[in-house]
Amino acid sequence: MIRCSLQAISRIPSVVDYTFYDESGLKLLETKGDVIQTGIASAFRELPIIPYTLSLIDADGNERFSLKKKTLVTQTAPAFTLDCPQGSVDFLEDKERFSLPNTSFYYKGVRYDLTGFVRARTFYIECGDDVLATFRGKLIPGGKEYAMEISSDALPLAVYLGAAIVLDVYFHSY
């Protein structure tokens, strides 16, 4: 089992900085880009017509994965695409599910669902009846923090981390 956390800290005007920490509090990854570039992208993150890319880098400055928000979201077009060394994963808004979150993705032909309880700030990655990861959010000064428990190695670590950011983009204000 892997335990880590994601901090999503809001800054003015509408910028969110993402940082992942290990269990002991050591910084693992953070958003890449200068304040202006990141600020412009994040300021428009909730507008469906503005695309942007978040790159997550390690302490050595190496990009570990990127997450691209798409402009046109349809039944078959992805809302986000995650690019990592193990491949690409498209996060889709599942228009047939009437619960929130309503997001799914496929990895190596297998469907995974992001499920949970928005008001309780608790979310899961599920494959069928199996829970692969749990994300528990709480409010902290300036933003939110998600405690993450990853209990399966069915997916690359970047996919679990990217899913946490997707959940925050959708539900940061809750």
Keywords:
174 residues, mainly beta, 2 helices, 14% helix
Protein topology:
Blueprint: E1 2-11, E2 15-22, E3 27-31, H1 35-43, E4 52-57, E5 63-69, E6 80-84, E7 87-93, E8 103-107, E9 110-117, E10 122-127, E11 130-140, E12 143-150, H2 157-171
Antiparallel strand pairs: 1-2, 1-12, 2-3, 3-4, 4-5, 5-6, 6-7, 7-8, 8-9, 9-10, 10-11, 11-12
Provide a descriptive summary of the structure in words.
- It is a single chain.
- This protein has 174 residues and is mainly beta.
- The chain has 2 helices and 12 strands, in the order E-E-E-H-E-E-E-E-E-E-E-E-E-H.
- It has helices at residues 35-43, 157-171; strands at residues 2-11, 15-22, 27-31, 52-57, 63-69, 80-84, 87-93, 103-107, 110-117, 122-127, 130-140, 143-150.
- The longest helix has 15 residues, at 157-171.
- It is globular and about 35 Å long.
Main sheet makeup: 12 strands, antiparallel, barrel
Structural class: mainly beta
The residue-averaged pLDDT reads 81
Query: Which range does the strand content fall in?
Result: over 45%
Helical stretch tally:
2
> Order of strands across the biggest sheet?
1-2-3-4-5-6-7-8-9-10-11-12
